What does this fold into?
Amino acid sequence: MNTTTTKNPLAQVKEMVQSCIQCGTCTASCPNAFAMDHTPRKLWRMVQADNADAVFKSKTFILCSSCYYCTLRCPRGLPLTRAMGLLTQMAQVQNPEPFKQSHRFYQEFIQSVRRHGRVNEIEFMSLFFLSMKNPILPFKYASLGIKLLQKKKVSIPNPNIWKKDQNGLEKIFNKVRELEEQS
It folds into this structure.
């Protein structure tokens, strides 16, 4: 790891957005900007100002859906979606506790897809709740689960419908792991 990144955790992201002109196109393009605590434009300004505390307390980069609208529409051609992803990775390394729930949610979702070739909602949510080790957490979602079952948006799965041969899917997961290890 280079010393610049060690001293300033934002150095790599700062380099990516250093030529940001604060035009606001990223914020105007973002479908999730309404839910963010700081707009993408404000986040880039905080990165430029080396305000790591404020950046890593923000949930802006967690709410990025990686739609690439900001990157595609940026007049400077900045890799903004990639910068958001990098901030997410850095935040999980620096202070994993605030991201524990979303990280476990993602892990269990991917494992369900890996096992079945698609998500098995009941299994996925059950394993997520178990991984959180919080017996009260499922009750927070119980009314939503009941509504989804009533509207037939979620069903109790028939185990016979799941794919038996996952070799093709396993190859994809292995390739992704290989690519992640290279970067």
The chain has eleven helices and no strands. Residues 3-95 form a domain with the Fumarate Reductase Iron-sulfur Protein; Chain B, domain 2 fold (CATH 1.10.1060.10). Residues 93 and 99 are 10 Å apart (CA to CA). Confidence is low (pLDDT under 50) at residues 1-5.
